[in-house]
Amino acid sequence: MDLNSLPALAVLSDNVTIVEIDQVKVVRVIHEKATAGIALHGGHVVSFKPTGQEDLIWMSDEAVFDGKAALRGGIPVCWPWFGRIAAPAHGFARNSEWTLIEHRENENGVIVELGLLPCESTLAVWPHQFQAHLLVEIGDELTVTLDVTNTDSQAWTFSGALHSYLTVGDIEQAKTTGMGPEYIDSLKGGELCQGGEVLQLTDTIDRVYTQPSECITVEDPVLNRSILVNNQGHNSAVLWNPWAEGAQAMGDMQDSGYQRFLCVESTLHAPSIEQGCTLQPGESHQLITRISTK
C-alpha cells in the first residue's frame, strides 16, 4: 500500500499527517526509520514499512474502505471477543471509529495513540463500560498494544486478538517456527492436535496454538528476511491462511491473495465470552504484539 502518494488532509507534525483512502481517514507516519498507516476505522494498522524493506503488513488489494466493513488485511483489532462466539464476529472494535488521542516522535520513531469508548452501538451488543487505548509504536520495529480498562461498576469478561497479516513472498516457501507443539484445529471441529517444530503450508490452516514460544519466526526466503513476532498478554497464537478456495470465496480478497500472507496473531482465546479473561472494575489488561525482521 503506497500511502506516501496520498495528499495530506491535515499536517499534524513533520512526521504525522492525516490522509484518506476512500471514506476512511488514516494516520500516516513518515519517519527516517519507517513509514506506517493506521486507519481510524477499526484502529487498524494498514502498513508498516521499515526503511529499505517491503511492507511487513499485508493488505488486500480488494479491501473495502467504506468506513463500515472491517478491513481485509493489516492488523484488525478483535475485541471484546475473538472468533464467532458472539455477533458481530471478532467483536465491534474492528468496525468502530477510533479517536486520535495523541502522537509523539523523536529520532527513534513515532508513537500514535488511539482511543475507543462505549457508545449506543457498542452497548447494544455488549452492555458494559470500558476504555480502550491502542498504542502503535513505529520505529525499527512495530509494537501494537491494546490496553483495555473496566470502567464499569461490575466485572466483565472478554477475549481478543491482534490479527496480524504478515507479508511473505510465497506462502508455500515460508517456514514458521516457535508456534509450539500443541494446537486446536478449527478445521477439525476444535480437535486438539500435536504438530512439528517447523510449519510449511501446502493447504489452508486455522489453528490456535496453545503453547507458543516467546518468539514466533516466519522465515521468508523469497523476500530474504525473517519476520519475528513477540507477543505478550496472550494465552495462545492463532495461525491462519484461507488458501485458494477460501480466498476465492471472499469478496474483499483477490484470488491469489493467500499466496502473499500468513496471519500470526497475539490472541486471548476463549471458547465462549463467559470463559474469557475477567476484569474487575478499575482493572486493565494489555495485549501486545511486536513485529520486527532480521
UniProtKB/TrEMBL annotation:
Which keywords, in A-to-Z order, does the entry hold? Isomerase
Which Pfam families does this chain map to?
A: Aldose_epim (PF01263)
Q: What class of enzyme is it?
A: isomerase
Origin: domain of life: Bacteria
Recorded hits in InterPro entries, A to Z, give: Aldose_1/G6P_1-epimerase, G6P_1-epimerase, Gal_mutarotase_sf_dom, GH-type_carb-bd
Q: Does the keyword Membrane apply?
A: no
Catalytic activity of the protein: alpha-D-glucose 6-phosphate = beta-D-glucose 6-phosphate
Matching entries from CDD domains are given as: D-hex-6-P-epi_like
Record GO terms (molecular function): carbohydrate binding; glucose-6-phosphate 1-epimerase activity
UniProt xrefs under PANTHER family: APOSPORY-ASSOCIATED PROTEIN C-RELATED, GLUCOSE-6-PHOSPHATE 1-EPIMERASE
Q: Which family does it belong to?
A: Belongs to the glucose-6-phosphate 1-epimerase family.
**What protein name is recorded for this chain?**
Putative glucose-6-phosphate 1-epimerase
